[in-house]
Amino acid sequence: MATGETAVVLLSGGLDSATACAMARDRGFDLLTLAFRYGQRHAVELEAAERLARAMGSKRHVVAEIDLTIYGGSALTADIDVPKGRDTAEMADEGVPITYVPARNTIFLAHALALAETGGASDIFIGVNALDYSGYPDCRPKFIESFEQTANLATKAGVDGNRFKIHTPLIDLTKAEIVKKGTELGVDYGMTTSCYDPHENGNPCGHCDACILRLKGFMEA
């Protein structure tokens, strides 16, 4: 257990990050949560992240303001339609989906690293998942291993011997296994949102890849 130690947790407001946060808390870490307003069309997730941060007992919740819309290239940050109504076979066959945001996890982890170094934390939790057809290259174990090496080469803390660890507790889990684990740890998934293209009132569309995979996970769980 890590009682008294602090971990930075990337908390988007979605199902995966909520579960990763609960797992960090279960391991005894004090929580320092981090979310991003990056120009995403589903910015309603930031309200969910704040709710979750309070519910999880985060000692500080930070919202970083960055603008990824200036680069475009994603249905989440540009005027590109979000795919709807696809089955999981279609998702798997597509390769890297149009909802991939270029370099997003690299950018997010760099911010988390800065927060960890200034916040006295050596541990960073991120809810990336390599299964369930995400197809995102920055969710792969090789990327995480590479970033961890970079973190320890590129920081004062790292070169001073205070090594950083990037935790990916969900990386090999199916969505159903993630739901089961979070339920065991008392996650209120009613606080979360996963939709890529929510309605103006914040309700999920029910038809995008994220909504379909979320429903699939709950049904299988």
Would you kindly provide a written description of the structure presented here, covering whatever features stand out?
The structure is a single chain. The chain has 221 residues and is of the alpha/beta class. The chain is 38% helix and 11% strand. It is built from eight helices and five strands; from the N terminus they run E-H-E-H-E-H-H-E-H-H-E-H-H. A five-stranded parallel sheet has the order 3-2-1-4-5, sandwiched between helices. Helix 1 (15-26) crosses helix 7 (175-184) and helix 7 (175-184) crosses helix 8. The longest helix is centred in the middle third of the chain and has 15 residues, at 104-118. The protein is globular, with a radius of gyration of 17 Å.
Give the structure's gist in a few sentences:
By secondary structure, the chain is an alpha/beta fold.
SSE map:
Elements: E1 6-10, H1 15-26, E2 30-37, H2 45-56, E3 60-65, H3 88-94, H4 104-118, E4 123-125, H5 141-153, H6 156-159, E5 165-167, H7 175-184, H8 209-220
Parallel strand pairs: 1-2, 1-4, 2-3, 4-5
Helix pairs in contact: 1-7, 7-8
